[in-house]
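Collaboration report, partner site 2.

Our partner group contributed sequences for two proteins of shared interest, and the home lab folded both. The records are reproduced in the order in which they were received, starting with the first partner submission.
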Amino acid sequence: MNLGNEIKKLAIDNAITLTKLAESIAQSKRKKYSVQNLSSKLKKGTVNLNELLIIMETLGYTVKFEKIK
């Protein structure tokens, strides 16, 4: 499973552009964050946890850590 591809699929399913996701990250981090930067991180698989949480919230999802039983 490629995280970048999964995020792109969720974005398409929710009619949200990478531009909107990059804007959400920029707003949350209070610094410049370009679409090219996001696209590169998705392609390379280098999205960090903070960015992932912002992306998922923008897409209307939550990230849950659950201990394996």
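Second partner submission, folded after the first:
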Amino acid sequence: MESRHISRVIRADAQRVYVFARDPENLVSWAAGLAQSDVEVRDGELVAQSPMGEVTVRFVPRNDLGVLDHDVTLPTGETVSNPLRVVAHPDGAEVVFTVRRLDATDEAFDADCAAVADDLDRLRRILEA
């Protein structure tokens, strides 16, 4: 299975980037591929309206390592695991999202990667403003 690592350097403290990116209230402002409207907490889980329909999102517990891995349960019931890291960088922080091809066509995989890149660009613009 092919994976592609999409990353952006953000000129902001890594802990600040981690805290902002992890906050469900902020997802709609930067993660358009995941949340197109405010995220609600339902039965202890995050529920978002995504381009694919309603999805459930479960982040790993808060940690000091910058790990924001999360599982997204799609409307089909399939769960996709998404590795996401915020690491210290000489210019601030680097955010790295791993996109896995799974069974996507070349075109769909490229589109997923482009969407993640757009999301990370939005995150960078917000945190560098």
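Feedback sent to the partner group on the second submission included the following. The helical segments are 14-22, 24-30, 106-128. The radius of gyration is 14 Å.
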